[in-house]
């Protein structure tokens, strides 16, 4: 399981693993892939700096990357309090009422739930500044091309930039903007995703930009067979997210996540939903009583980015603390149907590699 | 490009091509695949009989199959006139108004547009009766398992039965009912389709029933790369529909279809929509002004099967006769984005085969 991307990024297998957990990211890198740490959870860039110090000490010199959330166009900006004033009362009362109806415990006095500021442009920029002081090998942007000066800044540090694309025309635009690696994110993927499924999207993006940049396949990949399918479709590697959520290492970073992991293990491939309720843009989440509440006839329409996340982030914290699998709010792809237990990262990587080899041997017999 | 399915069906390549055109079906079979003739357009079984006589004379002894539309549970039955009485006035007037607003010509006096009776259980049964008098090698059912006595009847004639499945649990049920081949129909497919994309669905179905029956991959397949991906995911072959609509042979059966073919050539992978307006069950269609009209806030909700088709079939005929690409009503998958011209069937098959071989050579270099 080796492509030109391996040389380019200095990795053994063309497996790029996105995760908000530094323990998972380090384990992916040590297992021969490229761990990519999601930065959106760091409201304070100095906290990210500290975690990247930990990465530098715990990846044994193996390459790793970071993922920021940065729209090319600078959206509404401001402090959470400023932004909070833009949120209609109808939305606030819907969230309060829903949490009450779902039986979510009320936070104790003095417990405060911060908004997730990583969705703000200024905070994402501070993530880039900090990350470039570390020996990162990739900056990925979950919202397409970052602004031109951010791409230039990364390139000055010799760091390639990856951008997610849900349509071939987006991929063409990214490459025109100087993006070095395109992540083709299919409909079945977790998180922000478009309407075109990987089977169709991936060769379209490869045909559009594959002669200029490597294309990674994202969406629906959780086994060596699926990595082989992605490479057959023209990808230079796989970008995976959902599978790493159900790992032992994830619990090391987020010890309160056993309910979320139980929800992942229980979910079938039918138990996800593509909705705007997480960030304001369509993203695939685990289907739970929380997502169902937003589909009720009396539910308000989700707000635009970044307001929707400012609205729901404190609710997500409370849902998380309820420690109840049916109340989880978590981005996840249709591949969750394949998650049947919590495992160490290295076991997943080993299975991807052996499954890939078995698939190629099986295909040999069709000649 | 050879799997165990080739022996089983007596074909050269594991390409099964669904088409309502006998000219296309015969060309697929002659090119080394298995042409499967869709029967739903035959209101009168004697017409099907005549067309299958033509197939027998024009396939050079190569195997072919038929596709019927038969729910396991017998739905509302009756003559079109009976069924017409069950259709609310609101729906009838919406269709009339929409056709008028879209500028669709009013049919001349004496021109009659029949409902498509193939959706009726009794008519589908008559298709099976007639087809079994011909040397068919497959009966496929677009709506899952046919009733048990139909499966038995096919087996008495030595004809295997294939059934479409959009979830692993459906596939398990089909095999329990005696179905011999499962067609795993992904979200991206044209026609009736579920919500799980091929990349995820196919290995799930293979894991569930692949040790008992061959699984065909349907949805998103239009190139040798995609056939290779499907086989990597565990399929024994590919089931394809959309690509054959843009063939020269299709025009031989349906000479009035140039507007439809123009619409297919113009469409991108974003130009389809999954909707209940065609049959009452979710099916993916080309996105046109007709499908958009049904998404307007004032549009009524589609009726259940078979009433919705009784309602819209005459409208579809009128849309077809308008010969205007933006007014086409046609099931098609996301793979339409790959259709860039009208070609002979043999050219498509040859490209699938050569693309498949190239893909396997490319994958060899990853070892």
TrEMBL record, chains A, B:
Keyword field contains Oxidoreductase: yes
Name of the protein in question: NAD(P)H-dependent flavin oxidoreductase
EC class name: oxidoreductase
Gene Ontology MF: a single term: oxidoreductase activity
Keywords: Flavoprotein, FMN, Oxidoreductase
Its EC number(s): 1.13.12.-
Species name: Amycolatopsis pigmentata
Pfam families (alphabetical): NMO
């Amino acid at each position: 399981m080796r492509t030109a991307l391996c040389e380019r990024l200095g990795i053994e297998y063309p497996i790029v693993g996105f995760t908000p957990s530094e323990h998972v990211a380090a384990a992916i890198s040590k297992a021969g892939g490229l761990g990519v740490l999601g930065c959106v959870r760091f409201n304070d860039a100095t906290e990210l700096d500290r975690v990247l110090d930990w990465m530098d000490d715990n990846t044994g010199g193996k390459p790793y990357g970071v993922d920021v959330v940065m729209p090319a166009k600078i959206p509404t900006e401001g402090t959470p309090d400023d932004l909070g004033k833009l949120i209609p009362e109808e939305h606030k009362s819907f969230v309060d009422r829903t949490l009450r109806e779902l039986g979510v415990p009320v936070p104790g006095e003095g417990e405060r739930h911060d908004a997730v500021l990583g969705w703000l442009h200024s905070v994402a920029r501070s993530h880039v500044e900090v990350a470039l002081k570390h020996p990162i090998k990739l900056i990925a942007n979950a919202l397409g091309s970052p602004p031109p000066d951010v791409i230039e800044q990364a390139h000055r540090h010799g760091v390639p930039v990856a951008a997610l694309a849900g349509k071939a025309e987006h991929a063409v635009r990214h490459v025109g903007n100087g993006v070095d690696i395109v992540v083709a994110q299919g409909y079945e993927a977790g998180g922000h995703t478009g309407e075109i499924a990987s089977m169709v999207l991936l060769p379209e993006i490869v045909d559009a930009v594959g002669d200029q940049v490597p294309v990674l396949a994202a969406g629906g990949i959780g086994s060596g067979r699926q990595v082989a399918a992605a490479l057959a479709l023209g990808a230079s590697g796989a970008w995976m997210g959902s599978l790493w959520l159900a790992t032992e290492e994830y619990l090391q970073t987020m010890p309160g996540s056993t309910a979320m992991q139980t929800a992942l293990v229980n979910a079938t491939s039918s138990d996800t939903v593509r909705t705007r309720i997480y960030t304001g843009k369509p993203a695939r989440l685990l289907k739970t009583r929380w997502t169902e509440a937003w589909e009720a006839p009396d539910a308000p329409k989700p707000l635009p980015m970044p307001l929707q996340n400012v609205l729901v982030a404190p609710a997500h914290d409370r849902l998380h603390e309820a420690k109840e699998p049916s109340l989880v709010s978590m981005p996840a792809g249709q591949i969750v149907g394949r998650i049947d237990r919590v495992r160490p990262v290295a076991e997943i990587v080993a299975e991807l590699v052996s499954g890939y080899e078995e698939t190629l041997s099986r295909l040999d017999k069709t000649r």
